[in-house]
Design goal:
Strand content: under 5%
CATH class of the domain at 277-352: Mainly Alpha
Structural class: mainly alpha
Largest sheet: none
Mean pLDDT: 91
Order of helices and strands: HHHHHHHHHHHHHHHHHHHHHH
CATH superfamily of the domain at 277-352: Tetratricopeptide repeat domain
Radius of gyration: 32 Å
Number of helices: 22
Distance between the termini: 116 Å
Low-confidence stretches: 1-31
Shape: elongated
CATH architecture of the domain at 277-352: Alpha Horseshoe
CATH topology of the domain at 277-352: Serine Threonine Protein Phosphatase 5, Tetratricopeptide repeat
């Protein structure tokens, strides 16, 4: 017996009931919205805008915010208008509509000023600062952040004060005003320590460590990075532990403390392997390759660079692939493995040509030119060295130009072309002399030997 026919009336009845209930809720919502007056409508439209924004439906969010704004305008509610102008500013900024975002933030700021809402004033000043940073208008951004900082300081809002110090620190960092950046980060650190915000404290130790590293203050950099590592270890933040282990490894490698650096890179690698973070694994393989090449342990260095290359091939990272081909080329050159060196250096050259990495291309032509020179292949060496010279001339790299003129001088000397050898050594001499470089005397001896 077919029971389906006996179920249909129940299904239809259930569907009809649901439809009636849904229509009832819709009618009730519409009635409530339009019977609540302009203020209620403004609030409800704003709430709907927030809901649409939270799920990424910016078009509907914009429509709701504009309707909310219209209702607030009709009752001259400055606080409500300020809020919706602010919401629209954030929305437009997320859509990269910078000019519209700026207009909305300014209108929001004016309305917060009219309603005397100092927190709102400080927030919009900060938003404008961030907007100007994105537009690379750094003096205006600094002005906004400083004004926002001043308001938050009068309000005693320490967390927001810290945020403005961070904004200013990042801005000074972008302008390469290192000392100003350090001062802002130290003030942020002090506040976060007082508030007991341990993750923030750890992050700022790291920020300061990296900044000191850039400034060449290795002692302070080490102290900050060790504190960050210690703090993150207590907090069991595995990605951060791996990151700061790697940063410390780079510091020790720069100081020539290779064993300490190796240990830290291996620790970082182990964590990233557990997290299956391929990009960071590749970075650690590269760092370890550099360590082993410095020992030198060519076999392990080659193994690390090949592992890096394999990951970057899978990730499709062309520039990183080119760099590893170059690193492998240097290993093979050190082992007098000319054929393998030529093969990987040509692969690196091909990728860098496609990416138009001019400064790196100049070095690639130099490597290949020296390789062919070593093999006595003058015909292939000459155009490579000339290409490196032309690249460095275009880049304005005078010292590298001087080196290439010197290399060409040696090449022509080996070929027995004393005139061209003399001309190139003379150009090399003039550039080194202009730069006040100690190679000036060395090139002078080459010139004297040609007399």
């Amino acid at each position: 017996m077919d029971n389906s026919s006996s179920k249909k009336p129940l299904e239809n009845l259930f569907f009809s009931s649901v439809l009636v209930i849904a229509l009832g809720f819709l009618i009730f919502f519409v009635w409530q919205l339009f019977s609540s007056g302009p203020l209620g409508q403004a609030v409800e439209f704003g709430r709907l805008g927030d809901s649409y924004y939270s799920v990424g439906d910016f078009q509907r969010a914009e429509e709701m915010y504009l309707q909310s704004l219209e209702q607030f305008q009709s009752i001259e509610d400055s606080a409500g208008m300020a809020k919706q102008y602010g919401n629209l500013g954030v929305l437009y900024a997320n859509r990269n509509e910078w000019q519209r975002a700026e207009q909305m933030y300014i209108k929001s700021l004016e309305n917060f000023q009219a309603s005397g809402n100092r927190k709102g004033i400080a927030n919009q000043l900060s938003n404008l600062g961030t907007l100007y940073v994105l537009g690379n208008a750094l003096p205006r951004a600094e002005q906004m952040f400083l004004k926002s900082l001043e308001v938050y300081q009068t309000l005693g809002n320490q967390q927001e004060v810290a945020k403005q110090y961070i904004n200013l620190g990042n801005l000074y960092y972008a302008r390469q005003e290192w000392q100003g950046s350090v001062q802002m980060y130290l003030k942020t650190l002090e506040i976060h320590q007082a508030l007991g915000l341990q993750q923030n404290v750890a992050d700022h130790y790291s920020k300061l460590g990296n900044l000191y590293f850039q400034l060449g203050d290795m002692q302070r950099a080490e102290a900050m990075l060790l504190k960050s590592l210690e703090q993150n270890t207590v907090l069991k933040r595995q990605p951060e532990i791996a990151l700061h282990s790697s940063n410390l490894g780079k510091l020790y490698m720069k100081r020539g403390e290779l064993k300490a650096a190796e240990k830290l890179f291996l620790n970082s690698l182990e964590i990233h392997q557990a997290l299956d973070n391929q990009a960071e694994m590749a970075s650690n393989y590269k760092n370890l390759g550099a360590i082993y090449a410095a020992y030198p342990d060519w076999q392990r260095a080659e193994e690390m660079f090949l592992k890096n290359l394999e990951i970057n091939q899978a990730l499709g990272k062309q520039a990183e692939m080119a760099d590893q081909y170059t690193n492998l080329g240097q290993i093979y050159l050190s082992q007098n493995n000319w054929q393998s060196a030529e093969k990987v250096l040509l692969k690196s050259l091909e990728i860098n040509q496609a990416l138009d990495r001019k400064a790196i291309l100049a070095n690639q032509y130099d490597h290949l030119g020296k390789l062919y020179y070593t093999l006595g292949n003058w015909q292939q060496a000459e155009p490579m060295l000339h290409k490196s010279l032309e690249m460095n001339r275009a880049l304005g790299h005078k010292q590298d130009m001087a080196n290439q003129y010197g290399n060409l001088g040696h090449l022509y000397g080996k070929r027995g072309d004393k005139q061209q050898a003399k001309e190139n050594f003379l150009k090399s001499f003039e550039l080194f002399n202009e730069l006040g470089h100690p190679n000036t005397q060395r090139v002078q001896r080459f010139l004297e030997a040609l007399q």
